[in-house]
Design a protein that fits this description.
alpha/beta, 6-stranded parallel sheet, 7 helices, 33% helix
Length: 200
């Protein structure tokens, strides 16, 4: 169990603060006891979320939060299992895990904070970086067309897909509440602020 006393390691004004608040609000609104909540993350900026929420948490390997969360849900169906990661983590390194989780339709909620870059490694282009945006890995501008994660996950069979914005706490909280209440796989794509590296 996490005590909730860990020191935050995030840049000022990071969108993860808002998403964190929305997750806490959703758990509170649903009155889920902390011993019934499991948050699984990958690594990088989003990876700390499992340490900052009061309940069970696991920081898994890069891109592996979804299979880790799936295994936990299968082993203990009574837990509310939330997987959390960034766009590089979930849409890049191990996109296959997301697509097959959508196909299998296991009852977990997967939230991706999309800041359109690999922020922890100082702002390289990710699968959602817009065309012509200069990054550390594309100084002349990104020339690879980004994909639309919402349409991709829908095409894989996910029946509950939501597009949200980190600053809209009310709607983001309700999206998380609805995803937890949905008895199958849910995916929430969050357009996330990254004041340090996302400057477009």
């Amino acid at each position: 169990m996490r005590s909730g006393l860990n020191k935050f390691q995030r840049c000022p004004w990071c969108g993860n603060f808002m998403i964190h608040l929305a997750i806490k609000n959703a758990i509170k609104e649903l009155n889920i006891p902390k011993h019934k909540v499991m948050v699984v993350t990958g690594i990088w900026c989003s990876g700390k979320m499992s340490q900052y929420l009061d309940g069970y948490g696991a920081e898994s390997l890069h891109g592996r939060s979804v299979p880790f969360a799936t295994g936990i849900k299968l082993a203990n169906p009574d837990l509310t299992v939330i997987a959390y990661g960034g766009d590089g983590d979930g849409y890049g390194i191990w996109l296959g895990h997301l697509l097959h989780a959508a196909r299998r339709d296991t009852n977990i909620t997967y939230i991706v904070a999309d800041n359109e870059n690999y922020a922890l490694t100082t702002g390289q282009a990710s699968p959602t970086t817009p065309i012509d945006i200069p990054t550390k890995s594309t100084p002349a501008g990104n020339q690879i067309t980004p994909f639309n994660p919402i349409e991709l996950v829908k095409a894989a069979g996910c029946r509950n897909v939501v597009d949200a914005v980190d600053k809209d706490i009310k709607n983001l909280t309700q999206a998380i509440v609805s995803a937890i209440q949905h008895q199958w796989f849910s995916h929430i794509h969050v357009n996330q602020a990254c004041p340090t590296w996302r400057r477009w």
